[in-house]
Amino acid sequence: MKKRTLWKKSSAFILALSLISGLSPAITGFSTKAAESDTDISEDITNDEDTEDVYEGEDIDENTEEEPSPEEQAALHEAILNYTKNSFFILAKKDYFSKNGTPPTDCTFVLNEETKEAALTLLDENGNTLDVYSFNTQTGVGTNQKGEAFDLSSYVIPAEEYFVPFDYLSDIARLYFMDKDERNISGAFTRSDNEKDAFIITLSGDEDVTLAEYTVDIRTGIGTDEKGNAVDLSVYKDYKPIAEDDYFIAVNIIDDAALGYYAEKTGTTCNGTYNYFDNGIFTAQIGICDDEFNIIETYIIDLRTGIGKDSSGNPVDLAEYAKTHEVIDKDSIPQIDDSEFFAPITEIYDMAVNDYKRKTGIETQCSGYGYDEENSKLDLFLTDENYEEVVTYTIDPRTGKGKTSSEVAVDLPQTGINSLRNLLTIIGSFMMIVLGAVTVKLSSNRRYCKSN
Questions:
Q1: The pTM is what?
Q2: How does DSSP classify residue 281?
Q3: How many structural domains is the chain composed of?
């Protein structure tokens, strides 16, 4: 049973970041720039662990802030110092090696947090002092033991020299893996190796099993996997996450296309979906739900093309279905000037649907229209719930009169009047019943009073 572990589980990283940015600005200064990617990763880890389902046992009052003990604060502060020391050591090692040809193997680190000045003593494998680097932690500028000037920030690769932005690395690695392997990827962890000027991306599958680990050059994206095989992530150097405007159809009708496709393939009509869109790798996972919202089928499709597969590996093409069945986004239909129409366009939709139901008993929906302004002709496309076309109403929008695709005459204003008459008749009948009941009640009361 895990009890009262909220701070330890989630706030350790938060406090560490606050120390870096607030309590100890001298510690990181420009060194956070050198290890920018590591900070991003820490935030990701915090978000992953800060979930409600992690905690079991007694309830924790979310409004109660649990302060870390002095010992815990000291331990965190020491951890940050060690991390900062290692970051500066990597840069100093590069500078020393470029000038002397041999790299130091260890160091000691002393920091004055008030002046933001640090002294980094470089040691050989036997612990002997090779040099002492004195520098400002916010600029990286200083001198060595001989008084020679150096600039550690010159060894930091600027973000504009990365072969792709750091935030894209995990998605690029996933795409690269998916091109070669169909196994499901459940996680991606990216970190930088500043000593080797490399990015390391680890992909994991179900139960956190490592699927692949790519180590690639920061500038080129070329490297190897965990088995030593060549890897070239630069093939995705022009990568950008997909935007909703690039989806194969509007995002709010993708579920309509999926439900209609499922109904056509199986003969079973469902009314709900559970969707997960991953813009990073251009995919959507669409779960078809039964009446109790249990997922009974899953489609995994490419958001750019609408093409994918179902849970059995059978091909799925929602784009073709949406096209042939005219699954459209009503909100995206260009607005037309209906000021000269006999009624607002949205009311005309309803009149056509009601007219067809009154005549045939069949429920439909108006899934779109075509308007020929020059010839004053308005086509209303009525479909079933699976977007199969049922009938088309062609009318003069100024009069509401016309005919169906079956050559049946229609008069939509008359349909509207009849609907209004029916409504008034119902209301009138109801009022008569109410008034009758009140009259009977009053009459009964009067008889009761007379008898007394």
A1: 0.57
A2: G
A3: 4
